[in-house]
Design a protein that fits this description.
Layout lengths: L1 H12 L8 H12 L4 H11 L9 E8 L5 E8 L2 H14 L3 E3 L8 E10 L5 H10 L4 E7 L2 E8 L4 H10 L3 E11 L3 E2 L3 H16 L3 E6 L1 E2 L2 H4 L3
Parallel strand pairs: 8-10
Antiparallel strand pairs: 1-2, 1-3, 2-9, 4-6, 4-7, 5-6
Helix pairs in contact: 1-2, 1-3
Length: 227
């Protein structure tokens, strides 16, 4: 999946140089986060530049509604659009949902840059204010294995710039990426329905041709804890 993202980033950006191709830079950072070998990264870049023979890859997006009328926005890469479309359609229908047309759910999401940041050990309120002062749009705080973490959101075009500012301020960045942030949320309060939504989301994430899955479900922590 990561190799396909790199190849598409090179094709769309017209360059195999991450310094002049921000999208490629993000893709390479993702590759590093999963310990992808350098030679595999270079092979994916070469394929994007047309130096290697192989199947032609295309970017695809899908929109639809899953269990509980949860809106989904999917991004993928495929070498066979008809096959992938049929697989996605079948999965939505089996879940009791439906695949929609272009624009059916996109209006419920907004393109943003997302940065996952480790706290420095100070007060949560102070660190959130410090991050906001660096020019970010929004900050969410959470705990991960008792480690204070933050999800920072910014305009997609400012992702690298803001990431550099956060690093210079003494924070450690775990990951940064472009994403679709839901702006209209669908509350889920029934545990059985919450389980169906999570199960459906995981099935989408497991599909080879799907790179990213965005959904607008809002499940309370007390329900998530039992799933």
């Amino acid at each position: 999946k990561v190799a396909n993202v790199i190849t598409i980033a090179v094709k769309q950006g017209g360059s195999g140089d991450p310094d002049s191709n921000p999208r490629l830079r993000v893709a390479i950072e993702e590759a590093r986060s999963v310990n992808m070998p350098k030679e595999n990264v270079q092979r994916a870049i070469d394929r994007g530049l047309g130096k290697l023979s192989g199947q032609s890859l295309e970017e695809v997006t899908y929109e639809g509604f899953g269990p509980g009328k949860v809106a989904f926005y999917l991004e993928g890469v495929t070498d066979n659009k008809l096959r992938t479309l049929q697989e996605i359609k079948n999965l939505f229908e089996k879940s009791g949902g439906s695949l929609g047309g272009s624009g059916s759910t996109a209006y419920m999401f907004s393109a943003k840059g997302e940065i996952r940041v480790k706290g420095k050990g100070g007060k949560v309120e102070d660190e959130m204010l410090e991050l906001i002062d660096l020019g970010v749009e929004d900050v969410d705080d959470f705990l991960d294995n008792n480690m204070q973490m933050y999800l920072v959101y910014t305009e997609g075009s400012k992702l690298t710039e803001v990431g550099n500012k956060i690093t210079q301020a003494g924070y450690t960045i775990e990951s940064q990426d472009l994403m679709m942030k839901p702006t209209i949320l669908q509350p889920i309060t029934d545990k059985a329905l919450a389980e169906k939504v999570i199960e459906f989301t995981e099935k989408l994430e497991d599909m080879d041709d799907i790179q990213k899955v965005y959904a607008n479900f809002d499940i309370p922590d007390n329900l998530l804890g039992g799933i």
